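Bump. Still looking for RNA polymerase sigma factor structure tokens.
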Amino acid sequence: MQREPASDDVLLAAQGDVDAFQRLYYRHIKQVYGLVLRLCADKALADDLVQEVFVQLWQKLGSFRGESKFSSWLYRVTTNICLTEIRKQKRWFSRLTSDSKETSEPINEGNLDVSQLDKLILKLPEQTRQVFVLHALQGESHQQIADWLGIAPGTSKAQFHRARKRLEEWLQDE
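Sorry for the wait, here they are.
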């Protein structure tokens, strides 16, 4: 069985190969940035957190055991870093402006205008947005989300339903 180049890069980077780490960085930066921006809803904070994600990735790469896909592990690390920082900075939400002229890179393909959806996601209340991003966009279970956010799984499900309903209403209005 032939190994994927990505797994070779993970092994090499874990051994200190800077070029392999750089390949991992360029392979995953857009997805990591999209996740971070959607979770924290603040471009300046997202820039800082993405940098922190890759610094910690370099430091923790040796702890990746290969029990899951590297990208899944990376997105879990990213989510943990974001949620920890958000808990530290409860005033981050007040810095959010709904009419930001900046657009994020589209992460998914499809008929939906992703930048429009991103702007609407950013308008959701904090916990509702976090649940929606983690479940709908990252595929996390309601149990995992509940554990991360310190809420009941039923609350996660309710928040997700609320987010989906609001987004559908907003999309119909536009």
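The chain has two domains: 1-92, 103-174.

Edit: fixed formatting.
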